[in-house]
Amino acid sequence: xxxxxxxxxxxxxxxxxxxxxxxxxxxxxxxxxxxxxxxxxxxxxxxxxxxxxxxxxxxxxxxxxxxxxxxxxxxxxxxxxxxxxxxxxxxxxxxxxxxxxxxxxxxxxxxxxxxxxxxxxxxxxxxxxxxxxxxxxxxxxxxxxxxxxxxxxxxxxxxxxxxxxxxxxxxxxxxxxxxxxxxxxxxxxxxxxxxxxxxxxxxxxxxxxxxxxxxxxxxxxxxxxxxxxxxxxxxxxxxxxxxxxxxxxxxxxxxxxxxxxxxxxxxxxxxxxxxxxxxxxxxxxxxxxxxxxxxxxxxxxxxxxxxxxxxxxxxxxxxxxxxxxxxxxxxxxxxxxxxxxxxxxxxxxxxxxxxxxxxxxxxxxxxxxxxxxxxxxxxxxxxxxxxxxxxxxxxxxxxxxxxxxxxxxxxxxxxxxxxxxxxxxxxxxxxxxxxxxxxxxxxxxxxxxxxxxxxxxxxxxxxxxxxxxxxxxxxxxxxxxxxxxxxxxxxxxxx
Length: 495
Hints:
This protein is of the alpha+beta class. It has a single domain (31-494), classed as CATH 1.10.630.10. The chain is 52% helix and 8% strand. The strands form four sheets. A five-stranded mixed beta sheet has the order 1-2-7-4-3, with helices on both faces. A two-stranded antiparallel sheet has the order 5-6. GO terms for molecular function: arachidonate epoxygenase activity; heme binding; iron ion binding; oxidoreductase activity, acting on paired donors, with incorporation or reduction of molecular oxygen, reduced flavin or flavoprotein as one donor, and incorporation of one atom of oxygen.
């Protein structure tokens, strides 16, 4: 094709895209979409979003267009919600309508057809979530038995940390091993030894997932998946990590099939296999092998990465704020002492420690964009109309840093969760696990783990950093879907 032919083709394409945007714009004006910046053909509004700190770009747009606005991620329309009042109105007051799971191609890679808990919708999601909640409770989640399991793992962790004898260490895999073993005992029926090389490989794969989905190229993949599949980068590592974890889970399922007792369930996989057997004659049952693998993957990844990252980030914050660490030590000594193991009943008598853990979660803002939702029907919302199946970003960052709810939204301050008498103060804007119908399945387990692991570590050790306090950088290394802390080292000295 000659130069004039190529030029004519490009001009024709531009005209077509301009006409498409014009027609689309007229349709949207008729349905009263929330306002937003004018999108470019193909690109949408991505040039107005920072790849390194997308959530800050979204918050800046809210300052211009209001707390409910429309952007285009490439050709896809997305409605963004900012601030506690708006997110509450959507996820809690209109929870049923906003209960759909929105579009995010890297999450689609995990679910492969919308299976599992995280990325499923409709009746499939309801059945799998109901079953998973019931099964987790049956295996002790929320009860004394899981508390004892966490206490046991906390003991193993502290013994492992004692072996360092105060030498510098990178805490990343210490915490991953301990936290992962708790969910492994529920899902797989056993824990792994800390020296297990295969276990370390799995934890490395899980760490790659959060980093991959939070990278700039991972965010571009979510906008242009077909194009980005051809380019190298962290998003490719994400996909390979998912494949590796799924292969491991498939092998574990095979082992369960060979050894299970139909009259006695050992763990989540056994219980799911029994449910599959019960429903094998039901057409279109949601309990089949794909659903088992994807649901187990969701629980394994979420049950490992979120809590372990919070622990790692949390100790880094305490290195930056040694006065806070000192007060936590003092409260631990007063309420628990240094002999017996911390228990969950101690939390109600330790308001300062509880406030510190809450403030760590608020401050690190682990999932700033939240996991995307979608509306299950057309809805009138804040004087606008959001059409059915529109993807919605409820910005958890805008809730956790809402200046109307937190006096010092961008500072670490445990006082956000303490009243004038020093008692723990519950704030409804505390939504690190999201809220409403899609609130994190493992919220209760995560809260129990965070309290018991934090208190056990700080009961046993004081911390020091090779870096001067003022030089500790708490800003995330990666900030996209998730906020990933920078690598650091610390020394843990036995008390």
